[in-house]
Design goal:
about 500 residues; alpha/beta; Leucine Aminopeptidase, subunit E, domain 1; Aminopeptidase; 9-stranded mixed β-sheet; 6-stranded mixed β-sheet; 16 helices; 20 strands; about 35% helix; binds ligand BES; binds manganese (II) ion; binds zinc ion
Length: about 500
C-alpha cells in the first residue's frame, strides 16, 4: 500500500501529478461536483458533457491534460444497486489510466457527501475506504521475481492524496485512511501468499509467514510438527502428506487469547501449498494453478492481520493444516482407508479430493474452542467454478443466521457469496461400502458433496464453508482484481467479524 494522506481543499490547492475526480450520472449532482472545480476546467468539462464525451456514466473515464494539471474524470453512474462497488471500480479504472505518467502523487477527490448519500448510500468513511481499495488494489502486481530497471520511474506513484471539500471532515478522513490502509495491506498479503510459487511458498515458508504475523501482532501462535500431528491422530493431514518429501504442519493462532470468556470465531484455511492431485494426478495443462491451493490459508492469514491491526474486540482463532499433495513413493493410494482425528474412517476414492481430508482434522480441532462459529475457507472443488464461475464464492453451512451475516458482508465488500443447498440426500452420496464415509460423492453436485463431507466434522457448532476455488484466482484482470491471486476472503471475513463486534 502506498503512503496515503488526507487533505482539505479543491484540486488546485494540493500538488499531485494527476487528479482523479469522480462524477455521478445524475445531472444535478454532476453540476454540483462541477461547481467545486476551478473555472477553466469547469468550462472544459461542461463542453465534454455537451458533446456527449463524458456524462458520469459507470465505466466511463476521460483523461485530460491541461495547463492546470492532469485530470481523470471517472463515472459513478446512477443509483443502480451496485452501491459503493461503483466507487471501487471508478477509482480502479482511473488509477490504471493515470499511472503511466505518475511519478509522485495521485490525488483522489472524494465524492461530495450529498452524492454519497443519494447513490451509494454508505457512510463517508466507507466511501473513502472503497476509493482506496479500488485505487490501491488496482495497482497491485506480484513483482517478487521481476527485475525492474532502476531508471524506470514512470508508473511508480509514491503517494495517494485524498481530497475532500466537505468541511470538518479531516478527522473522519484520517480514520478512514487508517482503516483502508490496513485492509489493503491485508489483501496484498493474501495475494502475495497465493501468487508465490510452490517452490517458494512451501510448507515451511507458509508456516513462517504465520509465525511472523503472530509475532508482529502478539497473536499466540503454535505450530504442531509431524510428531504432534501424529499425537493428535490427524489421519487426514498425515495421509495427504505421505507422498511429500516435506513434513506437514498444523498452525494454531489465537487472537485475544486471554479473553477466555468470549467464545471465539474459528477460521479454518486450506493450506495445500501445491496440489498435484496425488496418484490420481491432475492433467498437466493447468496444474501450475495449483500453487494457489493455499488461498484459503492466505485469506485466513490476511484476515488475522487485519483483525489484529484493527484491534477488533473479539476472539478469533485461525487453524491452518499445511501440506502439499504429491506423488512420492509413500503416497496414499486410492482405496486406502484412513482415520480422521475424531475416529471417523474414510475410504479414499480419489487422492485429489485431499482438501476435505485435511480440513476434517482441522474442523475436529476447532470444536475444542467451543466456538461461536466455525468458518472454513478453501479452494475445494472445480465443481463450484462450474456452478458460479469467478463471480461468487460458494457458501454452504448449517446455520441460516450465520449465512445471512456472511451474505451481508459479501454484498458490502462485493466479495459476494451464493448459497448452495445442503439437503440430506447429498450426505448419502458419500456412502462407502468399507468405511464410515467416502471422500468422493459421485459425478454431480461436487461442491455440495464436498461440503456435506465437511459437515460431518463440525458437530453442532454454527458453521459455514466458503468454496473459493473460482474466486481466489482469476484468468484475467478486471478493475481492481489482478490476474492470479485475488486475496478473496480477506475483506469478506474482516467485514463479517466487524459486524460481530460487541
Ligand atoms: N484444489 C482442487 C480444487 C480446485 C480446482 C481449485 C480448480 C481451484 C481450481 C481440489 O483439491 C480438487 O482437486 N478437487 C477435485 C475433487 C474431486 C476429485 C472430487 C475436483 O474438483 O476436481
Ligand atoms: Mn485436489
Ligand atoms: Zn486441492
Amino acid at each position: 500500500m502506498l503512503k496515503c494522506t488526507g487533505h482539505y481543499g479543491t484540486p488546485d490547492r494540493v500538488a499531485a501529478d494527476v487528479y482523479i475526480i469522480p462524477f455521478p450520472g445524475d445531472k444535478a449532482l454532476f453540476q454540483k461536483t462541477l461547481n467545486q472545480i476551478c473555472p477553466g476546467l469547469k468550462a472544459l468539462i461542461t463542453g465534454l458533457r455537451e458533446n456527449g464525451d463524458f456524462s458520469g456514466k459507470a465505466d466511463e473515464t476521460v483523461a485530460l491534460a491541461t495547463a492546470d494539471g492532469r485530470f481523470i474524470l471517472t463515472g459513478l453512474g446512477e443509483a443502480d444497486g451496485m452501491g459503493v462497488e461503483r466507487v471501487r471500480r471508478a477509482f480502479a479504472q482511473a488509477v490504471k489510466l493515470s499511472n503511466g505518467y505518475v511519478t509522485q502523487a495521485i490525488a483522489l477527490y472524494c465524492p461530495l457527501e450529498e452524492i454519497v448519500k443519494k447513490i451509494l448510500p454508505v457512510s463517508f468513511e466507507d466511501t473513502v475506504v472503497a476509493m482506496l481499495e479500488g485505487a490501491s488494489l488496482a495497482l497491485y502486481k506480484y513483482n517478487a521475481f521481476v527485475k525492474v530497471k532502476p531508471d524506470d520511474k514512470k508508473g511508480k506513484a509514491k503517494e495517494f492524496k485524498i481530497l475532500t471539500t466537505d468541511e470538518g471532515y479531516q478527522s473522519r478522513l484520517k480514520t478512514a485512511i487508517h482503516e483502508a490502509t490496513i485492509i489493503v495491506e491485508a489483501v496484498e498479503l493474501a495475494r502475495d501468499l497465493s501468487n508465490a510459487p510452490a517452490n517458494v511458498m512451501d510448507i515451511d515458508a507458509l508456516t513462517k509467514e504465520a509465525v511472523a504475523i503472530g509475532k508482529k501482532f502478539l497473536i499466540k501462535t503454535v505450530v504442531l510438527n509431524k510428531k504432534e500431528i501424529q499425537a493428535n491422530k490427524m489421519g487426514g493431514l498425515l495421509a495427504v502428506n505421505q507422498g511429500s518429501s516435506r513434513e506437514p504442519r498444523f498452525i494454531v493462532m489465537e487472537y485475544n487469547e486471554k479473553k477466555r470468556r468470549l467464545p471465539p470465531f474459528v477460521l479454518v484455511g486450506k493450506g495445500v501449498t501445491f496440489d498435484s492431485g496425488g496418484l490420481c494426478i491432475k492433467p498437466a495443462a493447468s496444474m501450475d494453478e495449483m500453487k494457489m491451493d493455499m488461498s484459503g490459508a492466505a485469506a485466513v492469514l490476511g484476515t488475522m492481520y487485519a483483525v489484529a491491526k484493527l484491534k477488533l474486540p473479539i476472539r478469533v482463532v485461525a487453524l491452518i493444516p499445511v501440506t502439499d499433495n504429491m506423488t512420492g513413493g509413500a503416497a496414499y493410494c486410492p482405496g486406502d482407508i484412513i482415520t480422521i482425528s475424531d475416529g471417523t474412517t474414510v475410504e479414499v476414492k480419489n487422492t485429489d479430493a485431499e482438501g476435505r481430508l485435511i480440513l476434517a482434522d482441522a474442523l475436529v480441532y476447532a470444536q475444542r474452542f467451543k466456538p461461536a462459529a466455525i468458518i472454513d475457507v478453501a479452494t475445494l472443488t472445480g465443481a463450484v467454478v462450474v456452478a458460479l464461475a469467478s463471480h461468487a464464492t460458494g457458501m454452504m453451512g448449517n446455520d441460516d443466521d450465520l449465512m445471512a451475516d456472511i451474505k451481508e458482508a459479501g454484498n458490502k465488500t462485493f466479495e459476494r457469496v451464493w448459497e448452495l443447498p445442503m439437503f440430506e440426500e447429498y450426505k448419502k452420496m458419500l456412502k462407502s461400502d468399507v468405511a464410515d464415509m467416502s471422500n468422493l460423492g459421485g459425478k454431480w453436485g461436487g461442491a455440495i458433496t464436498a461440503a456435506a463431507f465437511l459437515q460431518h466434522f463440525v458437530g453442532d457448532y454454527p458453521w459455514v464453508h466458503l468454496d473459493i476455488a473460482g474466486t481466489a484466482m482469476l484468468e484475467s484482470a478486471s478493475d481492481y482484481q489482478p490476474k492470479g491471486g485475488t486475496g478473496v476472503g480477506v475483506r469478506l471475513l474482516t467485514a463479517f467479524l466487524r459486524q460481530q463486534e460487541a
